[in-house]
Amino acid sequence: MLIKRPTDILSSDITSESVYLERRKLLQAAAASMLAAGMAAPFAAANAAIPKSAFKDLKSSPFSTGEEKTPHDMVTGYNNFYEFSTDKTGPAKLSKNFRSDPWSVSIEGEAEVTGTFSLEDLIKPHTLEERIYRLRCVEAWSMVVPWVGIPLGDILKRFKPLSSAKYVYFETLNDPEQFPGQKRQVLDWPYREGLRMDEAMNPLTILATGLYNDPLLAQNGAPLRLVVPWKYGFKSIKSIVKIKFVKEMPETSWNMSGPKEYGFYANVNPKVAHPRWSQKREVRLPSLFGSKNTKTQLFNGYADQVASMYSGMNLRKYF
Prior knowledge:
The strands form two sheets. Strands 3, 4, 7, 8, 9, 11 and 12 form a seven-stranded mixed sheet that branches. The chain is built from eight helices and twelve strands. The chain is an alpha+beta fold.
């Protein structure tokens, strides 16, 4: 049976709204206590901890938002990366010995050029850009992240996909010794994702190699991850080792695990609620008050760049 149901943690165990808000209340109480004691809020001085810059002469992008960036400590310390842990702080703790060098990516399927390529060979011909994007989690929290990366379409063109290639499939490293979370059947490993070809070629879609002007940390998906800013965060697969051009819509991890809760498209849409909570509003982290203080935007605010790809589609059916 290709689709294996989780045995110890179900897809419905993904952080519920009530659990999430309870965590926020605890953070609020902790912050209030610190402020009362004359201390700074937990993330107020986060930028001071940013490592020395690794990338120089980054190309800026007109697609970047001017919104305030989420503090570095929160971007690197609050992560959904179930290959390490189902706890938000677990990936940062459990990824210290993750080996992302050397790294290679297998290019397969409906393309003229296929094979296994080192990360350096994939990246070297391209100019790295900074893309400051909103990131919207399906759990109704959001961040603003300064990624460093390359348009995915520019890389894919080098492999000359055939006209029969309708989708692009991605796969994460499958290595339980490095990913302790893979020893538990939270999902049917390895993690899998996919995009329609036009989504993959959209200029907003990037392969990221860094954030905050430094190489990706393991908990953020080192050394190479997808970033699709108009879709819920689980579409942006981390630690990629395989890219495959395919004819049919590929099976994807969360859709396989909970098809009624996690669609293949996963476009951010305030009008389509998750079965267990509304998506109309979101918590923009780091919020000290745990309230849904921001209205969710259709396609996460990138409708001008992506809405035409879904013209005529029933977005409730193809959620």
